[in-house]
Each structure stands twice: as C-alpha cells, then as structure tokens.
Amino acid sequence: xxxxxxxxxxxxxxxxxxxTGTTFLPHTCHCRMCQKAGGNYFMAxxxxxxxxxxxxxxxxxxxRSSEPSRRGFCSRCGxxxxxxxxxxxxxxxxxxxxxxxxxxRPEHQFGAESRVPFLxxxxxxxxxxxxxxxxxxxxxxxxxxxxxxQHPDHDTGVWPMESKP
Length: 165
Ligand SMILES: [Zn+2]
Ligand SMILES: [Zn+2]
Prior knowledge:
The protein is mainly beta. The chain has a single domain (about 5-145), classed as Metal Binding Protein, Guanine Nucleotide Exchange Factor, Chain A (Beta Complex). It has three helices and twelve strands; from the N terminus they run βββαβββββββαββα. Strand 7 and strand 8 form a beta hairpin. It binds zinc ion (2 copies). One zinc ion (ZN) binds near residues 74 and 77.
C-alpha cells in the first residue's frame, strides 16, 4: 500500500498520468491475456481508485479485451498503461510505466496457470549491464543513448516527440 503521489507515462511521452490515490494489491499477472497485452511473460500492476488516477497529458486508447474488462495504452508508441474492469471503481496501473519503477514492489502473483515454467531459471542467468556491450544486434548503444526519444522519467512542459517510425 502506497500513499505517495506518483507520476508516469508511456515511452514516447504522448500520455502522462499522476496517481493521487492510495495504491494497493501490487502484483504480477501471468495470465495469457496479460502476456499478450504486455508482449512479455507477465505484467506488473497495482490497483488504485479510478478517481485517484489522473491523465495529465494526451489520451489513453483502449482495447476491450473481454466484455467485462479493457486495456489502456498509448496509441502512438504502444506502451501498456492500464488494465481495468469496466464496471469496477478501481483501475490497475502498469508498474513499468511509473517514472520510478521501484516505487511499488509486487506482493502477489496471479495467473499461475500460464506462468512460464522457466521464468525463475531465466532470471537467474548471469546478467550484463547494457553498456557493457558496445554493439548489440548491430545497434550501436552509444548512438541509442545520444538519440534517445524516450520521454524522461518526470513531468515535462513540452516534449518534442519527433521520433521516426
Ligand atoms: Zn506513447
Ligand atoms: Zn492477467
């Protein structure tokens, strides 16, 4: 449970939000729908009252993933931002989209039926820091850093959003 004011947004900066409500039920969800929606093995989410989640820039786009629920994302860059039951008073925010991804730590896991069986093994593989490898798949990481179009991890007055497709 976290009562601090948190900010976050999508990768390109077209959608920014602020959380003023108390967050609760921080969790990972390994269900097949969260895997698809996140393009990943699981999603990390925390709940907050819909009234305590304020969009401060742009507009969230929605995919109605089932009759009772929908998923919110940035239509410009594709970042998943929200999962929610339409009829409920709470929404769920993706923890990776927070400006401070360490602000909330998951305490529950759902969707055990589709959790990838090798997940723990994958996470115990020795890790390398990104800049350790000056060239990864032909992409020069120094060039990535110097031409980074990702929105910074804080609110900005104006953000150029001039990235090419
Ligand atoms: Zn975006
Ligand atoms: Zn799920």
